[in-house]
Amino acid sequence: MAANLVKAGHDLAVWNRSAGKSVEGARTATTPADAATGAEVVWMCVSDTKAVEQVLFGANGAAEVLAASVGTGASATIADSSTISPSATVRFAERMMARGVDYVDAPMTGSKIAAEAGSLIFMVGGTDAALARLQPLFQAMGKQIFHMGETGKGQATKLVMNLQIALIFEGFAEALTLAAKLGVDVEKLLPLIQASMVRSGVVDYKAPFILHRDFSPNFPLRLMLKDIRLALDAAKESRVRLPGLEAVEEVYDVAAEEGQQDLDYASTLTLLEKWAGVEVKAAAK
């Protein structure tokens, strides 16, 4: 994402929680505060709610620097592409907007391939004015922007989207496991799935990886489990029951306990295979 901003001609300072990472053409900052110094926009993409809070309000955080720049008459906007708690997002936004800093939540979908290609899809919460200011940055990193409402609604939408991904893949993985147990040729099953109403983007994307037994992380299981828990927390806050997602969380919990947390979430298939005593694979030629 940062590399695409540089390619689009934007002046960039970057900071990463894991030391040693840099982006060609961008200044490497030493702290969030350093990265935010002189910036009109601070764009965050970190792993969880606690990390966002630390980047903004922790030691050497970006919040004080941005507030100080606003005090001199400059404008400043925070855009957060992390996937975190919607209610925490609203709290963070209230703290920053009280200091005159605008706040937009802009989680995205598309995984690593779309991030590299600059074809992410953003779901955004914030004011029309803030979105207009950020438009050139969105265009450098993505192909579509969906404005979902006020600040916090982008995060709420992302949880709803990942809820569906988790449930759709679980159904796909369970179907493949039962098919293998019943002796159905997976290579014959997949074209049928893709020709029918069962077809989905999740299946289209994950099927080739599964056939090649490639569970390297495009979306690590630990992050999907984090998002599942965020969705369940948001549902509890709103007094909504999500029994299907509760069942899927149990599968992810066991998979994480068995050491799969840094593999792609598609590796939950291997847990189903273990329980069934089968392996989903292409037929031998």
Task: Describe what this molecule looks like in 3D.
With 285 residues, the chain is mostly helical. The protein folds into two domains: 2-150, NAD(P)-binding Rossmann-like Domain (Rossmann fold), CATH 3.40.50.720; 157-276, N-(1-d-carboxylethyl)-l-norvaline Dehydrogenase, domain 2. It has helices at residues 2-7, 32-36, 49-57, 62-71, 86-97, 111-117, 128-141, 153-182, 186-195, 201-211, 221-237, 243-257, 268-276, and strands at 13-14, 27-28, 41-44, 77-80, 102-105, 108-109, 120-125, 142-149. Strands 3-4-5 form a three-stranded parallel sheet, sandwiched between helices. Strands 6-7-8 form a three-stranded mixed sheet. The chain has a two-stranded parallel sheet with strand order 1-2. Helix 7 (128-141) links the parallel strand 7 and strand 8 (142-149). The chain starts with a helix and ends in a 9-residue tail after the last helix.
In short:
With 285 residues, the protein is mainly alpha-helical. It is 54% helix and 11% strand. The protein is elongated.
CATH class of the largest domain: Alpha Beta
Helix content percent band? 40-55%
Task: Give the name of the CATH architecture of the largest domain.
Answer: 3-Layer(aba) Sandwich
> So, the CATH homologous superfamily of the largest domain?
NAD(P)-binding Rossmann-like Domain
- Overall domain count: 2
| Basic shape | elongated
Q: Could you state the order of secondary-structure elements as H and E?
A: HEEHEHHEHEEHEHEHHHHHH
Do you know the CATH topology of the largest domain?
Rossmann fold
Q: List segments where confidence is low: pLDDT < 50 over at least 5 consecutive residues.
A: none
Characterize the largest beta sheet: strand count, sense, and whether it forms a barrel.
3 strands, parallel
Amino-to-carboxy terminus distance? 41 Å
Could you give the order of strands across the largest sheet? Answer: 3-4-5
Structural class: mainly alpha
